[in-house]
Write a structure and sequence with these properties.
The protein is α+β, with helices and mostly antiparallel strands and 97 residues long. It has helices at residues 18-36, 63-79, and strands spanning 2-11, 39-44, 51-60, 84-93. The chain has one domain: 2-Layer Sandwich (Alpha-Beta Plaits). The radius of gyration is 14 Å and the shape is elongated.
Amino acid sequence: MLVGVERFDLRIPGCGSLKEKRHVVKTLTTAIRSRFNASVAEVDHQDLWQRATLGVSVVATDGYHAKRVLHEIEKLVERWAEVELIGTELTLHDPED
């Protein structure tokens, strides 16, 4: 069993308040959860209007499958109109190590 974790650093240029930011982040995280059955949380920049960092994790039997699912999630985030993807960081963890 492997756990794939990816960190997405985002810029949300159209936001003028935390309420607007919460709406953008909530719709994006809901889309990721429903399409990919992945765990998603906002993990940094909660107090900034135009920045967000999302942590996404998937559990898979092998590294290929975990990377493939996270790559598809990355493509969804890149196409999301309200956000600009600044950077990503992907790691794989084997709990048995």
